[in-house]
Amino acid sequence: MDNLPTQELEELRFIQYECRDAIGYITLNRPEKRNALSAEMVSELKLAFTAAEEDEDCKVVVLRANGAAFCAGADLGYIQELQGFGYTDNLADSTHLMQLFHQIYTLKKVVIGEVQGHALAGGCGLAAICDFAFTVPEAKFGYTEVKIGFLPAIVSVFLLRKIGEARTKQLLLTGETIGAQKAAEYGLVNFVVGRDELHTQVYAFARRLCVENSAQSMEATKEMLARLPEMALEDGLRYAAQMNAEARGSQDCRRGIAAFLNKEKISWE
């Protein structure tokens, strides 16, 4: 973990970061508040994701949580305080959260959500912007903001991309909570596994990505998939062709193709 902000990481109050077996674990650690997102917690998450991205020992990131809930969304006590401030202060706070979501979505490394409990409002947003998410059958998901006169604004940008307009409207306009299986059917999460299996399944999946996939290729693929939806068809195809051509000249591609042609098993660690 050379060159990482070690002292700052050691001083985190609400987030934990560690790297084991090439997996960087970022853990929400405010269980007494159901891991609700305050401004300080968002700042610590930004720092932890920056650390994971810069950590040369880390190839894949797992976002998880301590306690019964994964994340209950925004800290409503903190939001109530902000209501006494002006638009400029509230915009700054909203931008703070927007930057975190954008950072996770565009992180150079694959992010896997390990959702061990309820993920609601902004917490459901955190789960949804992970590249993959595992959860347990008992977990509930939903965007309940409309029930308290609030807006699920930032996450809507990502949900429209991920699950489409119809299902985004269904979730955001009704404010209903759904079970884990329906969340998987909607595309919010990828895998529903037993509670006793959650950590081992996430670990096995993360390790498979570390060993079987080129980190360079996963990074380039994430970047490509983030950029393509905003492009017109012709622009997207030109961009895809450029990415294809660049990949062919990469060291990882040369190594991978050589191993395949020589019938050699390759490990990307």
State the main characteristics.
alpha/beta; 51% helix; three-stranded mixed β-sheet; 269 residues
Kindly summarize this structure in a few lines.
By secondary structure, this protein is α/β, with parallel strands linked by helices. It is 51% helix and 14% strand.
General description of the model:
The protein is α/β, with parallel strands linked by helices. Helix content is 51%, strand content 14%. The chain has 12 helices and 9 strands. The strands form 2 sheets. Strands 1-2-3-4-6-9 form a 6-stranded mixed beta sheet, with helices on both faces. Strands 5-7-8 form a 3-stranded mixed beta sheet. Strand 2 (23-28), helix 2 (39-54) and strand 3 form a beta-alpha-beta unit. It is globular and about 65 Å long. The two termini are 16 Å apart. The model has no long low-confidence stretch (mean pLDDT 94).
